[in-house]
């Protein structure tokens, strides 16, 4: 985003280095969210990120949150659904892409 604003790029020669360090830092924060799967396994819910990429609703844990609280908050923020009574601690998918960890609860919906 910053690289698309010439006035920011031109005035701050340290911006590219700062952004590289920020991306490295972001990879160290695990994300939590949910995978919504229809009962017949024919549909899933995905959201479009500001980057244009598509993914399951998820986000980074805030200070003082546990993983379930983070998943519930992130899903509510991104799609407006309260999953606090739907998410189960024994039904989830964990993945690691590069150094980024992601844990997504699996929720079957009608």
UniProtKB/TrEMBL annotation:
Matching InterPro entries: DCP2_BoxA_sf, Nudix_hydrolase, NUDIX_hydrolase-like_dom_sf, NUDIX_hydrolase_CS, NUDIX_hydrolase_dom
One family name in Pfam for this protein: NUDIX
PROSITE patterns linked: NUDIX (PS51462), NUDIX_BOX (PS00893)
Keyword field: Hydrolase
Molecular function via GO: hydrolase activity
Xref: SUPFAM superfamilies: Nudix (SSF55811)
Nudix hydrolase domain span: 27-110
Gene3D superfamilies cross-referenced by the UniProt entry: Dcp2, box A domain (1.10.10.1050), Nucleoside Triphosphate Pyrophosphohydrolase (3.90.79.10)
Similarity annotation: Belongs to the Nudix hydrolase family.
PANTHER family: M7GPPPN-MRNA HYDROLASE
Name under which the protein is recorded: Nudix hydrolase domain-containing protein
């Amino acid at each position: 985003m910053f690289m698309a604003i010439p006035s920011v790029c031109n005035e701050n020669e340290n911006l590219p280095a700062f952004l590289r360090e920020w991306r490295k830092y972001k990879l160290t924060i695990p994300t939590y969210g949910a995978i919504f799967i229809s009962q017949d396994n024919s549909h899933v819910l995905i959201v479009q990120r500001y980057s244009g990429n598509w993914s399951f609703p998820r986000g980074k844990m805030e200070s003082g949150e546990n993983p379930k609280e983070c998943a519930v908050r992130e899903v509510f923020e991104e799609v407006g659904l309260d999953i606090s009574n739907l998410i189960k601690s024994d039904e989830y998918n964990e993945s690691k892409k590069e150094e980024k960890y992601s844990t997504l609860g699996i929720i079957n919906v009608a």
